[in-house]
Amino acid sequence: MTTQVATTEIALLPLSPDASTTSLAHSRTTVASQPGFLRLHHGTRLEDSSQLSWLIDWTSLGAHEAFMSSPAYGPFIDEIMPQLSKAAVIRHYAFTGGVKQGGDDPLQAPVTELATFYLPKGFDQAKVDAAFETLQGEINESRAEGYRGSRWGYSVEEVEHESLGGEKGRAFVLLVGWDSKEAHEAFRQTEAFTRGIGPVREVTKGREVFHSRLELHR
After folding, report:
1. Theoretical Cys-Cys bridge with 85: which of 16, 61, 110, 190, CB 3.0 to 4.6 Å?
2. Nearest of 19, 148, 154, 176 to residue 82 by alpha carbon
3. Which residues have CB under 8 Å from 19's CB, separation 6+?
4. For residue 100, what pLDDT band results from cuts at 50, 70 and 90?
5. Which residues are CB-neighbours of 199 under 8 A, at least 6 positions away?
6. Full-model pTM
7. Beta-strand (E) ranges in the chain?
8. Contact, 50 vs 44, CB < 8 A?
């Protein structure tokens, strides 16, 4: 089964040592009260608890832009900025595909892998799609233990990354649910992973991978 969300904002938030959980919760509530908001998942990285991620589904990119132009945005920024050690990285993604494993949403799995791959300007989308379909096929056919579904899509905006050699490109994000970080690491040692990741490495320039235990904002 495929899933599609109009626009997903992924905000990477480096936390200051004295970040207030109360202020962060209030900031999430402000976001959740905006027109066009659908849902928000949040969690820190298992590899580095000072790195927080928000994954926010909006009805459209325009809904998020309307929030940024609204009177509520100034106070929101004033509240959240003191919680950060440096500026956040914010990107928007159009999710074009997904696989639910036994009805599971990868964002609601015990652990979610967030893998971002960087694509050079002028990349061939058909080749990129085929590469990631190969990887997904290997996951499915190998019945990877602990796998809990996937979502994927391209960045709406052009992005910058050191792997792109000073030029702007695009990002492709792959969200994968797992029973645990160890389940993902075990899959990476298999022949199925080697076969699946080979085509991906051929069409991408760089990648960043981390894991989080995401919670749904309520």
Report:
1. 16
2. 19
3. 83, 84
4. low
5. 130, 131, 134, 135
6. 0.92
7. 5-14, 37-44, 51-58, 89-99, 111-119, 147-155, 170-178, 206-212, 215-216
8. yes
pLDDT over threshold 80, residue 98: no
pLDDT tens-place string over residues 133-146: 999 999 999 999 99
Contact between 14 and 45 under an 8 Å Cβ cutoff? The reply is: no
Closest CA to 78 of 23, 135, 132: 23
What would the two tokens of residue 32 be? 């959740």
Pairing of strands 51-58, 147-155: unpaired
Per-residue pLDDT band for 96 (boundaries 50, 70, 90) equals confident
Lookup: tokens for 27 = 């900031």
Strands in 37-44's sheet, in edge-to-edge order, are: 206-212, 111-119, 170-178, 147-155, 89-99, 5-14, 51-58, 37-44, 215-216
Q: Within 13 Å and on the Cβ side, how many CA atoms surround 174?
A: 21
**pLDDT tens for residues 11-24?**
999 999 999 999 99
- Write the DSSP assignment of 56-100 as a string of letters: EEES-HHHHHHHHTSTTHHHHHHHHGGGBSS--EEEEEEEEEEE-
Amino acid code (one letter) for 31: V
